[in-house]
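To assess whether the prediction recovers the assembly geometry, we first specified each molecular entity separately, as shown.
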Amino acid sequence: MDPRIYQLSVLSGLLVYGMGWLDFEIGPVQAAVSLGMVVLTQWACTRFWKLPQFDAKSALISGLSLCLLCRSNFLWLVAVCAVITVASKFVLRWRGKHLFNPTNIGLVAMLALTDGRVWVSPGQWGNVAFFGFLMACLGGLVVNRAARADVTLAFLGFYLAFVFSRSWYLGEPAAIPLHRLQSGALLLFAFFMISDPKTTPDSRAGRILFAALVAFGGWYITFRLFHTNGLLWSLALFSVTVPLLDRLLPGTRYNWKTRGRPPRRDAPDLASGSAFA
Amino acid sequence: MKTPLIILPLLLAVQSAHAFCGFYVAKADTKLFNKASQVVLVREDDKTVLTMANDFKGEAKDFAIVIPVPTFIEKGQIHVAENALIEHLDAYSAPRLVEYFDEDPCRPRIMYEMAPKTKAAGRVGGAAERDKALGVKVEAEYTVGEYDIVILSADQSNGLEIWLKENGYKIPGGAGDILESYIKQKVRFFVARVNLEEKAKLGFTYLRPLQIAFESRKFMLPIRLGMINADGPQELFIYALTRKGRVETTNYRTVKLPTGMDVPVFVKSEFADFYRAMFDQQVKKEDMRCVFTEYAWDMGWCDPCAAEPLSNDELKRLGVFWLDGESRNPQARPMNSAVFITRLHLRYDRAHFPEDLVFQETRDRENFQGRYVLRHPWHGEPTCDAAKRYLEQLPERLDKEAQSLASLTGWDIDKIRARMKLPADGAKPANGKKWWEKIWK
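The predicted structure of the complete assembly is given in tokenized form:
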């Protein structure tokens, strides 16, 4: 089974729970705009770049992540965010790979360009959602035997180490770092953004180094620069180092359908619809 | 030995004898939430003006506060405000009742609104002596208004604790660790006590709120020290005054208080009880892990108004520093979009709020208020079909009001129905007919 089906179910369930029970500041209209625009943009880009196959799954995953994270009073900005998110996969490319995780660059671009008219509310999760989501995410690793779980696990390991070390140095009780780690936004980031196999380095060593850089950057921005959404900024920042990491530590390119096996010679990356997933 | 109260960090008494009371709402001067502190946070860019008030009832000489502050504070950055400012802010932003009177259904309906006023109180005080020892550096000493203020920095993990103890403060066990974590983050400590002479000269019978203006990237409120030996949860009201929009916490859930419900008319005389019970119920429902938004509104107006919006002059005295271009008339209200107020309310203890509150300002300018509706039924002779239908549907509507009151407050539905003189087993059609009897009549 395509692992994206599982991811879509988890994110949809979380969104319904968030909207119905957790007071997420998002109405059905905004959710519809996000989801509609990501699919529309994916379709338009598929046509424009003359790809043989239209596949909405990855776009919908990005759209659901936007619903969970992106907040604004202006629907048109939500729509622009969705367009940037999906279009980034087609436009911001380097040697046949898109540079940024789509949701990440969509959000960071809007945070940077709209003077705060788009914001991310990282605290709106609650315990039930957190532990439920945690189980679903870990379950996803098992169910899908995801080839790129290494980047998620490495990132969580490094981030946990940074958060705990700082608290230990300051003499804070364990409740503080534990509370900081109980964030749904952190899980969404670890399991759905940094894990994106299309935008992480090709080799395992590269991915682990990448995970360490992003974890350090996110921790530094949040706890030393006292800026919100440190992880989002950090991922966008270090994504530009991926081509360099691929050069230093080369590996095999990922493909959703072949699940990590090298693509066949007669099916070059660009010809496949999922190349832009 | 003197046993001054030490209030760490946000005016939260750490001695067992809590003396904070005082958040009042509605018309009655009833104590609503005990151990309540009120804080006004004015924030724009990296600049913060913090105004702290609480209702200290003890002897002024026994009172002191210790607040971790992120930077050195000069004398000019400290000020003493008036209680009236915070009272006004409270009254303006408090949850409100709106009252409607049903008109004769045979005539066009006209609506009438009212909102009860609210009242709050707050007092602050402190006194400090100095002693240079133990790696504690007294960086500055000032007298501002009725307060003697000391700015301390410390290098040693337990230096500050010992310094405070030697100066007659009762430091609860466990404070040392928390002080240590603040010291390692290079924060300064702002210690204030009441200067009794100055207080007598000024003639105030109560302690006025202290204000501090500082610049720091941190947009947060230290609450950890105040919870060390608190005998139970504490209440905190935060009024955030910002330029762009609503303020929320980034490390805890921020949830809007339920609003807009129709509640039984008898709530009018018990609004204070209703508000407290509803807040208790919401805290319980969220397992005490939420910060509640009670009001989020453009400071230029209100609808309905529980109190008039604050004037430019009042806002400036609270520290809103970006109003210079506004009208010269001090009584004028700020232009729309100049100031946005967010009123946050939380009940907290160590188990549920392990770390300090961290905030972010959003560009969310959607107005929100805690607003509850009373609809007085019309009682008259039905002279038209509309009136008959109205009277038929009335018991069902009243029962819905009873149900929403029960769900909001956790009060016993049977008692509510009894007070409203409704049937104990819920609504039935007014004429006693079964639902199917009306279909083929």
